[in-house]
Amino acid sequence: MDPDKIRENRLRRMADRQGLRLVKSRRRDPRALDYGTYMLTDPCTNTVVAWGLQSGYGLSLDEVEARLTEDDE
Fold this sequence. Notes:
The protein is of the alpha+beta class. The protein has one domain (3-68). It contains 2 helices and 3 strands. A hairpin with a 4-residue loop joins strand 2 (38-42) and strand 3 (47-50). Helix 1 (3-17) packs parallel to helix 2 (61-69).
């Protein structure tokens, strides 16, 4: 299995434990700005909690991990 996919799954579980949902952009065009990027949402209120671009997506896995672990520091 791809190491990025393993990391993505780990971060999904981490987000779930914090009551959030990790959502990946569904773009299929590699030239699109939000291709392969993520955002964190609150599934209860259906609001975006963390994003990188105006479209909502835009976070890399590094940024997602930093956001999910910032309270641990």
